[in-house]
## 1
Amino acid sequence: VVVVRGKAKLFLAGPPLLKAATGEVATDEELGGAEMHAQIAGTAEYLAENDADGVRQVREILRMLPWNEQLPWLPEPQYKEPLYPIEELLGLIPDDAKKPYDVREIIARIADESDFLEFKGEYDQQTLCGQLKIQGRACGFIGNNGPITPNGASKAAQFIQLCDQSQTPLLFFHNTTGFMVGTESEQQGVIKHGSKLIQAVANARVPKLTIVVGGSYGAGNYAMCGRGLDPRFIFAWPNSRTAVMGGAQAGKVLRIVTEAKQLKDGLTPDPKMLDMLEQVTAQKLDSQSTALYGSANLWDDGLIDPRDTRTLLGYLLDICHEADIRTLQPNSFGVSRF
């Protein structure tokens, strides 16, 4: 434990609670300051002068561990850069979230040599699945070109199972309004096939990395391995949005439900009140679906510049690979503070 002098505070009860409970008066530093824990209580092992000094000490601690001596030498993966410049991602995504674009355009700018082997390409065009490499590491890719249809859900579930069998990490790139709704979709078994996809995502044992590049709405967020399905890492582009549904749709739904309830109760609906309810609901959901709002609420691990996507994925894949092959020494006794 590294603590920073004059800043770190650790105590079971702070000064106000201490005074209320026992009548004792003590300052923050006396009760649980960094110096006290490093010099008297022994709760902390290292005392830093400031945050930068604390980071330096952590690096020193890790440098002294025989971390990489436990592993055989591993060669660096060999790879070629994409054929298309990644800077073009900044102009690739439309300003209007309702305007579609092909997720293959993103793949062409992040995959090694822009090489992509599509899986069941003729079966469904809304959910894109296939294999690619990021800085020499093989990955299974799942992206959206629209809502998730029953066929798309079934295809993605099968693809995830195959990647799990071959121990291939999975990349999820979100840009979907969710599952396709409507009479036709329900008759085709969207609930049945959608549950297959969510079950596959939940049970896949391989590393799962998620990038929210556009919209991520409703159950589509779960199906594409959002925060609730526990990806190892999840990052978002600044233009992305995450919500249970779009603001306009939420406002319209609440208006319809409220109007129907009033009619059922024998009341005359007030159009002005319904208009206000619809507008306020839409504004509230839209303001709470932005990338900044979601990241502030820990729905992801951070916002990234789209141009850093390939570099970040390469780094994360290295982390996941090393985590899976490194064996930690089990501890046969409880961890205690001495």
## 2
Amino acid sequence: MTSDFQPLPGLPGTLDLLQVSRNDAVVHVRLNRPAKRNAISDALVQQLHTCFVNLPEGVRAVVLSGEGAHFCAGLDLAELVERDIGSAVLHSRMWHAAFDAIQFGRVPVVAVLHGAVVGGGLELATSCHLRVAEDSAYFGLPEGQRGIFVGGGGSARIPRLMGVARMTDLMLTGRVYDADEGLQVGLVQYRVRDGEGLARGIALAQRIATNAPMSNFAVMHALPRIADQAQSEGLFTESLMAAVAESTPDAQDRLRAFLDGRAGKVVKS
């Protein structure tokens, strides 16, 4: 457990495949199957869903990481054997529900990535809003070599970050990107040395937590949908969301503080 973070009481704190702790407005969720390289079992994906739909009031951001040497080595393949078509569809939809609860949940999520970020692990990472990669992080989609296809939302999320052609390459050839390549193609936004990812992720989450909640909500929920719309529909959606955000009491207070000289201007850090 990270310094200053305490175990989270209530339902999320009872989940045995996750370590869930809190420091003020930030919750840290850590995948806790290190002996399996944090491979995602049915139980783990269900616990992720439960955790993210039951975040307590007052939480403004989440950091997601993995215990042990890896973030997540993907789907626990032992659970795919002898699954029929109907149950396979429902299994995929279970993953979709869990990862939608992250991407379109209550608060922004920062993923801290180290070691393996492959298959379902990459699908999980791309459901988060920001991604920090340590030196050791590597990225791959080995589904093609396993005789399967992505089922956790990767075909919808990953091309939006790196493009269809690059994702096709990973799946057809088994190519693996290192952390620098992941940054270059847009899979991650931040690069740090080994051992520094969690501190950076927490710092980003703490900064995000100071934003107006409705502004964060707009970025999480409106921005990706606008990007999927035709320009005229997107601009109209933007107008509606801008009107909602700027008319909240929080926004009005922040605007007055800026006009009164009580809020800092944008500077390069």
